[in-house]
Amino acid sequence: MKTLTTALLIGAAGLACTAAQADTGKLLLTGGVSSIDGAAGGGLTPWAVIGSNATAGEIGGSAFVTRTTTQDFGLTAYGAAVGIHDRVEVSLARQDFDASPAIALNGVAPFGVLPGQHIMMDIVGVKVKLAGDAVLDSDSLMPQIAVGLEHKSVTPGSLNSVFNFLGTKTTGTDFYVNATKLFLAQGILVNATLRNTNANQNGLLGFGSAAPGQDSRSWVPEVSVAYLLSKNWAIGAEYRAKPNNLEDLGQAAGLGKGLAEDAWKDIFVAWAPNKNVSVTLAYVDLGRIVPGVTAARNQSGYYLSAQLAF
Amino acid sequence: MKRLFTSLAPALVLAASTLLALPATAQPAPTPMASSSALFDSFGGKAGLVKLMDGFMVGLLADPRTGPHFKPANQQRIKEQLVDQFCMVMGGPCVYKGADMKSSHEAMDITKGDFNALVEVLQRSMDAQGIPFGAQNQLLAKLAPMHRDVITVK
């Protein structure tokens, strides 16, 4: 680790930076940034890239912290990932979700929700690259393809009574397959992910639902597009569809659309001043999050993430 | 399945509109219709490539990852061959007469990290020549597939 190593690149912060002798030799943006769930990718969705700067025959690592706030909620996420031979990625992440507005649920029933309640979630992720090279196979349409899983365990604190009422479980596992392609000559990166999940709001509101909500798993698509402005700057957008498991249960419980859930969207700008550091700033639109306690507001706001990689 | 498609539709629309909108607003000089020789011109023609290779070789020798591969070589000859090769892949008026990538590298131990290191040095050299980012990427897109023949340690 003589000097700076590695890379990271961001949602494509492009063909990497100035220099730096490296012990790990992944090229350009090929490590991605850290998604809020810990896997390398965009901000809201994993990509088929393997995190860290390690390329074939090397082992690297990355760490991140992300903060996002909306009208009514706040989320802090942090974690780390290890990339092995540009083939396998193992990630750990913790999310701290400020669910203070949930205190209003005490007006629906005596749930005993405490003021300022936070929901914590731990995520263990594994991703394996199956085929392709997102960057170097620039003469073909073949993308880099990976499969992965994210095992999530949520701790609702005093919201446990609400989880019981909703019939949601506190653990769940998402499975996904994704394809990432950098159209190098055009400087455009595209990722598509298909996720199999039963999570509510990514798992922060548990997994599945009591009837008549949807307890079964769904396949949901996620798409990221990034454009490289220069070696150090990229801009892009993401769309992540999600199940809407709880709405029907809320309807039946007389809450109207009070438990409806929407897709997540963002537009971002990512900056990689060198191969080891990246910063991502985004405007996120997270749709409705328990609209029954937030005046049915759309939750939008900023997202700021920093990553170190080697 | 219906659920999938209804949620997929907006995603695809978003992706498509982003793809369409971005080049119009953000992409600089090289248009999709630009010919290969326009790329050659943006590198300053043959004279520009000669200058680029001079800086490139200095960088390759100075970098601890690539230096050992190039120190024992005939550097002048490599530079001349690279000028011809780059000129040709960019559609310029040159013919590369050197060995193919496979036979010219198979005797060496070249890892993917080595390959990527060379690309980094090339990027720095192109930066030093003031070659626009878009043109750099167009060239890299033509060179990157050579990784299949150049990387010998898989």
Secondary-structure element order of chain B, as H and E?
HHHHHHHHH
Give the helix proportion of chain A (percent range).
under 10%
Rg result of chain B: 19 Å
Summed up, the domain count of chain A is 1
Largest interface by residue count?
A-B, 50 and 44 residues
Question: For the residues shown, what is the average pLDDT of chain A?
Answer: 90
Low-confidence stretches of chain B: 1-35
Helix content of chain B: 55-70%
| Structural domain count of chain B | 1
Quaternary form:
heterodimer
Task: Calculate the mean pLDDT score of chain B and round it.
Answer: 83
Task: Count the beta strands of chain A.
Answer: 14
Please state the second-level CATH architecture of chain B.
Orthogonal Bundle
- End-to-end separation of chain A in angstroms reads 8 Å
CATH homology-level superfamily of chain A:
monomeric porin ompg
Order of helices and strands of chain A: EEEEEEEHEEEEHEEE
Number of discrete helical segments of chain B: 9
Number of helices of chain A: 2
What's the level 1 CATH class of chain B?
Mainly Alpha
CATH-defined topology of chain A: Porin
Q: β content of chain A, as a range? A: over 45%
Summary tags:
heterodimer; A: mainly beta; twelve-stranded antiparallel barrel; two-stranded antiparallel ribbon; 2 helices; 4% helix; B: 154 residues; mainly alpha; 9 helices; globular
Q: Could you describe the 3D structure shown?
A:
The complex is a heterodimer of chains A (310) and B (154). Chain A has 310 residues and is mainly β. Chain A has a single domain (28-309), classed as monomeric porin ompg (Porin, Beta Barrel), CATH 2.40.160. Chain A has two helices and 14 strands. Chain A has helices spanning 160-166, 247-252, and strands at 33-34, 40-41, 59-70, 74-84, 88-98, 118-131, 144-155, 171-183, 188-197, 218-228, 233-240, 264-274, 277-288, 298-309. Chain A is elongated. Chain B is mostly helical. Chain B has one domain: Globin-like, CATH 1.10.490.10. Helices cover 69% and strands 0% of the residues of chain B. Chain B contains nine helices and no strands. In chain B, helix 3 (45-62) packs across helix 5 and helix 3 (45-62) crosses helix 7. The termini of chain B are far apart.
